[in-house]
Amino acid sequence: MSARFNLAKENSEAYAAIGKLDTLGRESSIPKKLQELIKIYASCLNHCAFCIDMHTKEALENGETVQRVMGVNAWREAPFYSDKERVVLELVEEVTFIHQHGVSDSVYAELERLYSEKEIGELYLLIATINAYNRLGIMSQLQPKTDK
């Protein structure tokens, strides 16, 4: 499979706008390890190989464990995620598949219990931004480089 249209090259202004959203997310109060779990899980749900590769490596570089990175797809069954992480991973799933039933009242109520309104907004931004990147990567058929 070869790469297609490259938004960063063909419309750098649009790509830079998404980059600004990404920067806001990275600079948020959400812990870096959770940010990367969000990005890995959304990328797995969207089947974006390029983003899975990139964010898995970034998570490991930021001190995340192999066990938690590898286990994120089975977070419901895995014992090594906190309640705060679990509700965020549920939110990632509901936002990524928003066309199915939106964000449920039960997930939102749990978010309100565990996070401030500012943090909820930051989580929304992180999830929306990685979903945008995933869709661009998939449409463009971006491929990760093979590790040597």
From TrEMBL:
Record bears the keyword Membrane: no
InterPro entries: AhpD-like, AhpD_core, CMD-like
Keywords, sorted A to Z: Oxidoreductase, Peroxidase
Record flagged with keyword Transferase: no
GO molecular function: peroxiredoxin activity
Pfam families tied to this protein: CMD (PF02627)
Domain Carboxymuconolactone decarboxylase-like: 14-94
Protein name per its UniProtKB record: AhpD family alkylhydroperoxidase
